[in-house]
Amino acid sequence: MNTKVVKIECPQKPRDEELLEGARLLREGGLVAFPTETVYGLGANALDEEAARKIYEAKGRPSDNPLIAHVSSMEEVYPLVSRVSDPAKKLMAAFWPGPMTLIFPKSDLVPYGTTGGLDTVAVRMPSDPVANRLIALAGVPVAAPSANTSGRPSPTTAQHVLQDMDGKIEMIIDGGAVGIGVESTIVDVSVDVPTVLRPGAITMEMLKAVLGEVQIDPAILGPMSADVRPKAPGMKYKHYAPKADLTLVEPADGDMESADSLERMTRKVRQLAEEKLAEGFRVGIICTDESRGQYSNGLVRSIGSRKKRETVAHNLYGLLREFDDLKADYIFSESFPQDHLGQAIMNRLSKAAGYHIVKV
Ligand code: AMP
Ligand code: MG
Known about the structure:
Blueprint: E1 4-7, H1 16-27, E2 32-34, E3 41-45, H2 49-59, E4 68-70, H3 86-95, E5 100-105, H4 112-115, E6 120-124, H5 129-138, E7 142-143, H6 158-165, E8 171-174, E9 185-188, E10 195-198, H7 204-211, E11 215-216, E12 245-250, H8 259-278, E13 283-287, E14 299-302, H9 309-325, E15 330-333, H10 342-352, E16 357-359
Parallel strand pairs: 1-8, 2-8, 4-6, 5-9, 10-11, 12-15, 12-16, 13-14, 13-15
Antiparallel strand pairs: 2-3, 3-7, 4-7, 5-6, 9-10
Helix pairs in contact: 1-5, 9-10
Bound molecules: adenosine monophosphate and magnesium ion.
Magnesium ion binds at residues 145-146, 154.
């Protein structure tokens, strides 16, 4: 199949003529990748089981890993769900459109092929103008997992999507680099106490400010033992992985504010990198704008600024892909505090590292 790339002239203000063909393809059961404010999504009609099946095939995604249905307005939510709880209403009012996915009990309209056999459905209303208008023009809810091959880092540019999906999907809509860079926060509002299943740019602190009480699925906080079943089936798969062996270095006391703990962390990253360089391997180092000067050997890349954590989220997946392109054998990375956006950053980095974390 020939994958058509459509470049949007001004992604903040897309014209309908630029999106109509993609919208038609979606409505008719095709696959169209498009930008959202989080990462690029691989879209298909969420009500069409056969279209959903094609998503799993293009991504190589296990079929029990459910898809998120994307909508463009509040009215489009109600036909998909059988109950909207009070906490759900509060979250929708506070954070939609935006980078938050909610899990509801599903209505009969949503096929099990979209929900991986579950009686719940994940719904999100993206704020990205291209995504929002494309979904509105399609006139159907759009199932859209990240547009990467399963197991690879999520795509944050159309170029990343092309690397993984060229020849496998009908169209890629190029709206430039995404804003946030990590996937949406997932909150289960089908249960009594809303529970975060995946951290993202809508942080725990922001959710608590709106709801008061919020729980967090234990699967987010560390490696899962075999007997724990994660509530988001996708959490059990190895995700976000670069090809290299990635190790995180973290201060043992969890303190990342003091000069002393930052110094211990950078010294350890340097030492581990030097050991592998001496053995003749290609070694990547993930540092920050603040620590860049501390490293001289290896493939040294800054992931962003400790003072502006949104830059770290924004660059994370692109950097992991860059190390793939550079054919790194090993990557050593500094760590980040677990509050605010740091929780999402460390969740993705820890999973990419297979929870291989060295404490100093
Ligand atoms: P992605 O589409 O790549 O952003 O991944 C979607 C994530 O949402 C996966 O981790 C899924 O397991 C999770 N998810 C989707 N639908 C549900 C659902 N009904 N219940 C729980 N988790 C879900
Ligand atoms: Mg994904």
